[in-house]
Design brief:
The complex is a heterodimer.
Chain A lengths: L2 E10 L6 E11 L4 E5 L6 H8 L7 E6 L2 E2 L5 H11 E4 L11 H11 L4 H14 L15 H13 L5 E5 L7 H17 L3 E6 L2 H4 L4 E6 L2 E7 L7 H8 L1
Parallel strand pairs in A: 3-8, 3-9, 6-7, 7-8
Antiparallel strand pairs in A: 1-2, 1-4, 4-5, 9-10
Chain B lengths: L1 H13 L1 H40 L4 E5 L4 E2 L13 E14 L5 E9 L1 H4 L8 H5 L6 H7 L5 E5 H6 L7 E6 L2 E11 L12 E5 H7 L5 E2 L1 E6 L5 H11 L4 E4 L2 H42 L2 H9 L4 H45 L12 H28 L24 H14 L9 H50 L1 H39 L4 E5 L13 H8 L4 E14 L2 E8 L1 H7 L4 E3 L3 H8 L4 E5 H6 L7 E6 L2 E11 L8 E5 H8 L6 E6 L5 H12 L5 E5 H44 L1 H9 L4 H42 L10 H18 L1 H8 L4 H5 L2
Parallel strand pairs in B: 4-8, 5-7, 14-19, 16-18
Antiparallel strand pairs in B: 1-10, 1-11, 2-9, 3-4, 3-6, 3-10, 5-8, 6-7, 12-20, 12-21, 13-14, 13-20, 15-18, 16-19, 17-18
Helix pairs in contact in B: 1-11, 2-9, 2-11, 2-12, 2-22, 9-11, 9-12, 9-15, 9-22, 11-12, 11-22, 13-14, 14-15, 14-24, 15-22, 15-24, 22-24, 22-26, 24-25, 24-26
The chains are: A alpha/beta, B alpha+beta.
The complex binds adenosine-5'-diphosphate (ADP) and magnesium ion (MG).
Chain lengths: ~240, ~850
């Protein structure tokens, strides 16, 4: 089991009144799964993803990543866990504007103390894989939104994480680019068997996942499993159409 | 106004650290400017005021050429009575040894009291209590005895002295006890030198000062003051050869002229400190504009005009600088105490005895501070304020993408800096204006501004090179720091420029002082060849005109170990409209035993020998440069026998004074000026004699009565360097301030940049950078700014030092300095700066490492 979420509650205090963003969610992710969390804006998707990505600790309940309970980790250990085992793709802000695309992709390896030549080699491999070979030396401001998301995906898998967290990766893209990004995620999921947890508020995006967890008001409303059916290119397209 | 409160004041309150740093920066800048101004004023005003208070009602004064005038000449001046009352005067400084063992300088006026009471108001306490002035006879009786002294009530009460007490006073080289015969109330001349004033009978004063038969001047109190102009010109025509009539204030203007260059340089230095303060204002206003583009856009969208926006930001600058200036005024007054103490050592050692108290903080200083500080601050804020006014209303809508545009190097960016550097080159080729190195400073300023404009381009090139290097040195954190810097070039350029400017000043001053010191050390090593150097004790920093008693000269010359004693005399002489030093020594002895270093001609000693017996002189380099005289030309000097022309035979190097020195052989001097008394003795000992032993022996023979300073060769060298170092200590103080202000200038914008980069830092944390890595990144970035600044500072500092050494120094002091790189200091200061700037990154780094909010990257 890559991820076990057991009755997790997250309450934000500090504001005028405490906000209960996640109210007792339980779920499990197996190795190689692609799971979508779907729901309207403000239902707690991002909050849940932050917890699953070890960016934050739950207020109560347990959350195990590869069997490790993140409640038991200190800040440095959490950081190491993220650095080594988790990849991130965010909706808006993914790339450091001061680094080139190639350098952005290589960042997780370098932060982990990897050698530069190895990092550069892997970065260009992945750039090729996501179709950005010609953009390696460009800066984020010089490429399109779709290209940025693809670069972010390349970055999120360069260190071969066990889990990829993608918070509404298509939310900021036109449908054409959104499709490309989804397709890429699906391919990576199949090719390298990476486990993906993504949040979205669009059904089309969710359709790419093998399992869709519907959330409302911080709770799981229902879970839709696509059965044995592997999400294929056609089925995704059908869903969109 | 409401908008100002909401938009500016609230923001400043939220940005406490940066507001505070800016205010402090301005305050320091203004403080230094005011302190230096007060210091300059105090050395000058102290002197002028002393002249004024001592002069009393004197309308005109007659002075001699050279060392005062001969008493006998009074007989030829009988006709002066037709114009008014006449009073001969001798004036000088003596040293009082107080019961506590401390010594204090005191101005002594020797007069013929019978004649003098008309000139000055002496209120003697004893009689004042009886509500009457002393009758002339009573006054005379007070000073009948040559050991009598009247001091001021102020001085007496300060040191618990009373009438009838005995006071130890050293005049020239003689220590003696004097009777206090009366106390002067704090009126008239008694107010000179803050009460450090004493009155003596003229004959007693002549005796005490070793100046029997000599007068300093003859003062005239005109019967009809309204005819002063006519009287002056009539008297002038009737005066015999060698005498001159002037108004008392003229002495002040000569001194003013003499100190002008020194003061000018000090002021120029002080404005550097202000410059750094202005960079901070620029910085603060820029940042507040840049970080609030959207808000400005919103304001514009809801209908606030461009003019209003411009006003808002200018008022921000005005508000900050008003507080800063007010603080600076108070701070400046305190700094002035220290500065007066520091410079009065220099001024006393090199020029004149000056006051030790800065003037009070009056309206004049307040006006100056605001007149200088406010417009400059507004000017500094104008650029960013105009930028703010240009913000389009749509800026509010554009979202919060990073606004920074990547800096691209365009060749046209190089035009202004190159133009400025070319201008600097041209300026450095120009001569002085009215004796002041105006163009020299213009060259320095052009270099500084050239540098400031060059900073973005330099940063661009450096971060290009830095990418690999920093990765190798500091791994990914190094690369991120470099990338951060690259991404904010337009922003950090200002701070880097500010830091580079102040560092380049430090480098330039260090190189200049280092070179100067090295030159002086060499010069001292070459020229100071004698075994013993002697001078009257009071000559050191009390009385610049103290002469030896003939008894002392006799004791020295008759000592069995003394092979030769070169009797040297120097005194102030008016040359043109400035004061120079005229010296006379025994050239034969100097040529045989001593060694001067000549600039021209090639065979200086031979040229010097040729001056013996003819009307010729040798002059110091500073004289030659300041008065544009070279070998073969003639100079005209006023002597007691009238104007005389002397051939300049040689120019020699001298770093003891920038006044300009003319030296003639004793024989020549006697022909024109009469027998000189000596102000110093240069003693050469016989082979094998031990200098220390001879010194001890001489001191024993001179006993308690004669107060003579005897330096051995090694101690005079130390003394020269001690004076040298104390002269330049003030520049170090300015340097420390400049560095301090500049470090503030790195830490505050860095902090702002970090707050601005919240999302980037959060993102880094989320994808796995730990706190340590973030801290390392920020500290490297701070260090990087320091490193870039220091490298620029080194380069520009060297350029500036060339200007200082080869233009400014030559023009204002008239001496050649050999260029010398103080490598040790530069290496050490580089390490210091890198450490200091890196350390200044610690607080921003801590703030940065605490940032990690997931919503930063997940929300727009
Ligand atoms: N840092 C925070 N502090 C307080 N409330 C928050 C914070 N982050 C999110 N919330 C609140 O929690 C709820 C869930 O937000 P979020 O997880 O971002 O939902 P979603 O991603 O589904 O739009 C919302 O009501 C939001 O306002
Ligand atoms: Mg969300």
């Amino acid at each position: 089991m890559i991820l076990v979420v057991d009755n997790v509650i997250k309450t934000y205090v500090g504001g005028e009144s405490p906000v209960e963003a996640v109210r007792g969610v339980s779920m499990e992710l197996r190795q190689g799964e692609m799971v979508a969390i779907m729901g309207p804006s403000g239902c707690g998707k991002s909050t849940l993803l932050h917890l699953c990505g070890a960016m934050d600790r739950p207020t109560s309940g347990d959350l195990l990543i590869e069997g490790v309970n993140i409640n038991k980790l200190n800040d440095d250990q959490l950081t190491r866990l993220r650095r080594e085992r988790i990849g991130f793709v965010f909706q808006f802000f993914n790339l450091l504007p001061t680094l080139s695309v190639g350098e952005n992709i290589a960042l997780p390896l370098l932060l982990d103390g990897g050698s530069e030549s190895e990092a550069a080699r892997r970065a260009s491999e992945l750039a090729e894989r996501v179709g950005l070979s010609h953009r390696l030396r460009h800066y984020p401001q010089q490429i399109s939104g779709g290209e940025m998301q693809r670069a972010a995906i390349a970055r999120s898998v360069i260190h071969k994480p066990a889990l990829l967290i993608a918070d509404d990766p298509t939310g900021n893209l036109d449908s054409d680019n959104g499709e490309k990004v989804l397709k890429l995620l699906g391919e990576l999921n199949r090719e390298i068997g990476i486990t993906i947890l993504l949040a979205t508020h669009s059904a089309e995006t969710a359709a790419a996942a093998g399992r869709v967890i519907h959330m409302r008001d911080g709770k799981v409303e229902r879970v839709v499993v696509r059965g044995a059916l592997q999400p294929s290119e056609e089925s995704a397209t059908h869903a969109i159409v | 106004m409401r908008l100002f409160k909401q938009f500016i004041l609230r923001h400043l309150r939220n940005e406490k650290l940066r507001s505070l740093a800016t205010i402090l920066g301005i305050a320091l800048g203004i403080a230094v400017v005011i302190a230096i101004r007060m210091t300059n004023d105090s050395s000058l005003r102290g002197f002028e005021k002393a002249i004024e208070t001592v002069s009393g009602r004197t309308s005109l004064e007659i002075t001699g050429a050279g060392t005062g005038l001969d008493e006998l000449q009074l007989n030829q001046l009988d006709w002066l009575r037709d114009y008014g009352q006449v009073s001969p005067v001798i004036e000088g400084d003596a040293e009082v040894r107080l019961a506590s063992g401390r010594t204090e300088a005191i101005r002594v006026l020797g007069v013929d009291v019978l004649r003098d009471t008309k000139f000055r108001d002496y209120r003697i306490l004893e009689f004042a209590e009886k509500r009457r002035d002393p009758r002339p006879q009573e006054f005379l009786e007070l000073l009948l005895d040559p050991q009598s002294l009247i001091i001021t009530e102020k001085f007496a009460s300060r040191h618990a002295l009373k009438v009838g007490d005995r006071l130890k006073v050293t005049f020239a080289d003689k220590a003696d006890e004097y009777n206090i015969r009366g106390l002067l109330r704090d009126e008239g001349p008694a107010r000179a030198m803050d009460g450090n004033f004493a009155l003596m009978d003229i004959a007693a004063a002549q005796l005490a000062f070793n100046r029997l038969g000599r007068l300093d001047r003859v003062e005239i109190l005109l019967n009809d003051r309204s005819r002063i102009d006519a009287a002056e010109s009539e008297v002038s025509k009737k005066l015999p050869e060698g005498l001159r009539v002037n108004r008392p204030a003229r002495r002040g203007s000569q001194v003013e002229k003499m100190l002008e260059a020194f003061h000018f340089n000090l002021s120029a230095l002080s404005y550097i400190a202000l410059l750094v303060g202005l960079f901070l204002i620029y910085n603060t206003v820029s940042i507040s504009v840049i970080t609030r583009r959207e808000e400005i856009g919103t304001l514009r969208a809801i209908g606030v005009t461009r003019g209003k926006i411009l006003n808002l930001f200018l008022s921000e600058a005005a508000a900050l600088s008003t507080i800063g200036i007010s603080l600076g005024l108070i701070l400046g007054r305190f700094l002035a105490y220290g500065a007066v103490r520091l410079t009065s050592t220099t001024v006393n050692a090199l020029y004149i005895a000056s006051a030790a108290e800065p003037p009070p903080l009056n309206l004049e200083y307040v006006l100056i501070a605001f007149a200088v500080g406010l417009p400059l601050s507004l000017f500094a804020a104008a650029v960013p304020a105009i930028e703010a006014a240009r913000v389009a209303p749509t800026a509010a809508m554009r979202g919060s993408d990073r606004l920074e545009s990547r800096y691209r190097l365009r060749s046209r960016y190089l035009i202004i800096p190159l133009l400025l550097l070319a201008l600097a080159w041209w300026f450095s080729k120009q001569g002085p204006v009215a004796g002041l190195p105006i163009f020299g400073y213009a060259a320095a300023l052009s270099i500084v501004f050239g540098l400031a404009f060059l900073v973005p381009a330099m940063l661009f090139v450096l971060v290009k090179i830095g990418n690999r290097l920093l990765f190798r040195l500091f791994r990914i954190e190094g690369r991120l720091a470099n990338a951060n810097l690259a991404g904010s070039i337009p922003r950090v350029s200002i701070s880097v420029a500010a830091l580079s400017v102040s560092l380049s000043m430090m480098v330039a001053i260090a190189v200049m002082i280092g070179s100067f010191r090295e030159t002086v050390v060499y010069w001292v090593g070459q020229t100071l060849k004698a075994d013993l150097y002697m001078r009257p004790a009071t000559r050191n920093n009390v009385a610049t005109d103290a002469v030896f008693s003939s008894e002392v000269e006799r004791i020295v010359q008759s000592h069995p170990s003394v092979e030769a004693a070169d009797r040297f005399r120097n005194f102030d002489l008016v040359y043109g409209d400035s004061l120079v030093t005229l010296g006379t020594g025994e050239f034969e002895k100097q040529l045989k035993h001593g060694k001067l270093i000549f600039k021209t001609p090639a065979d200086g000693p031979a040229a010097m020998r040729r001056t013996i017996g003819v009307d010729a002189v040798i002059v110091s380099e500073s004289f030659a440069i300041k008065h544009q005289k070279s070998v073969g030309e003639e100079i005209s000097l006023r002597t007691p026998k009238g104007e005389a022309r002397f051939l300049v035979s040689a120019v020699y190097y001298d770093y003891s004074s920038d006044r300009g020195i003319i030296v003639m052989d004793r024989g020549t001097f006697i022909r024109w000026f009469g027998e000189p008394q000596s102000t110093s003795l240069t003693v050469y000992l016989r082979q094998g004699a031990d200098a220390d032993a001879v010194r001890e022996d001489l001191l024993k023979q001179l006993g308690e009565r004669y107060q003579v300073l005897i330096y051995t060769n090694s101690s005079i060298r130390q003394e020269v360097l001690r004076i040298f170092d104390s002269t330049f200590s003030i520049t170090y103080a300015l340097e420390v301030i400049a560095i301090f202000v500049a470090i503030l200038g790195v830490a505050t914008p860095l902090l702002t940049l970090i707050l601005e980069r919240k999302r980037e830092i959060s993102m880094l944390r989320l994808i796995g950078a730990d706190r340590r890595q973030i801290r390392k990144m920020v500290v490297i970035e701070a260090g990087l700014m320091g490193a870039v600044s220091q490298s620029l500072g080194l380069i520009v500092g060297l350029l500036l030092s060339f200007v200082l050494i080869y233009v400014i120094n030559v023009q204002s002091f008239g001496w050649t300095i050999q260029f010398h790189l103080p490598l040790g200091f530069l290496v050490q200061s580089t390490i210091l700066i890198l450490t200091a700037t890196a350390l200044s990154g610690i607080y921003p780094a801590r703030r940065a490492s605490q940032l990690m909010a997931a919503e930063q990257v997940t929300e727009e």
